[in-house]
Protein: Peptidylamidoglycolate lyase
Amino acid sequence: MRRWTSARHRLACARRLAAACLAMILPASAIHAQGSPTTSGSPVYRVDQSWPQRLPNNWLVGDVGGVSVDRHDHIWVVHRPGTLLPADVQAGLTPPTAKCCVAAPPVLEFDTSGKLLRSWGGPKQVTDWFASEHSIFADADDNIWVLGAGAKDGQLLKFTPDGKLLLRIGRRGDFVAGDDPTMLGLPTDIYVDTKKREVFVSDGYRNKRVIVFDADTGAFKRQWTAYGKPVDPTYVSPPNQIGSRGSDNPQRFTTVHCVTMIGDELYVCDRNNERIQVFKPDGTYLREISFNRGLGGMSGSTWDAAPVPGHPDKILVLDGTNSEVAILDTHSGAVSASYQSTGRYAGQMHWPHQIAVDQEGRLYISEVGNASRIQRFEPVK
Structure:
């Protein structure tokens, strides 16, 4: 494996923290990592094995569906308690049958040291909570947005940081037409433009659209599908086809799995079509970039995306099928840095699901598929 030994290079990297995300991700035991990192002179990242700190109360987390970083550099996580096995949470039974363990509340807030600050959520606190927690977003006003993509999950919820419900968009229940603005269909991700008071939703596993609501009232504003086309009300995924490559159609979205904004452009992950389409916020189609085309297996390659701080021409792309993180040019799609490492050891990834970046350029990657963890990668100084 290539070793970065230039002191001059390391010193320059330490002075350019704004460019830190243009890094390959390197496990703590790099010599044993699977796959090969590729880089174009970018600084090195290593997994921070001390983050997060141990949870209190014998709490365990299930699959970690989503992660977001707020303006205070606090890290918000939503996990899936329902993915924990009964044998894992015996201390939470009435009466308990073992000393360990208890399912943690689904929403967790950590500070940069990894200390748990707040926890809340779940069916005991919120009526019609989600069947499967999928994504979380902390907006610039410190509101926390959460959605789910389990059976009959068709809603987006807005909370205060303490977990008080402020707004419900959509509902849980039987699904309606794919273009219906009153209900989502297994939605996957959220982006809030606080200045314009708009919330964008990638919707999702069943519906094949981006849909936009007023962030204060929840009123429907607009929607579109691939290439900015109108949404076809009949084009949805029945349960047995969700995520299937057999349902791929390049003229349509398949699994619409992420939505984020860089500058004034909106980036949408079309997971099973192994591409990201770029739009103006009004839905005008601009272009698309591909990643690992033809190599995404049955689950696709473009699972999540995030901006690279200080680099508006770059985007982080997460491939959950191949356990790969890459930096792509936002116009050409050229890969300037990437790292692939599959496994369950620190620094490796198993079904990495979502990615977020803090103001210091540290990466936070959540994992599903019974991986049940979130990892932080930080620059080598």
About this structure: Residues 1-43 have pLDDT under 50 and may be disordered. Residues 224 and 230 are 5 Å apart (CA to CA). DSSP finds one helix and 28 strands in the chain. The first helix runs from residue 7 to 14.
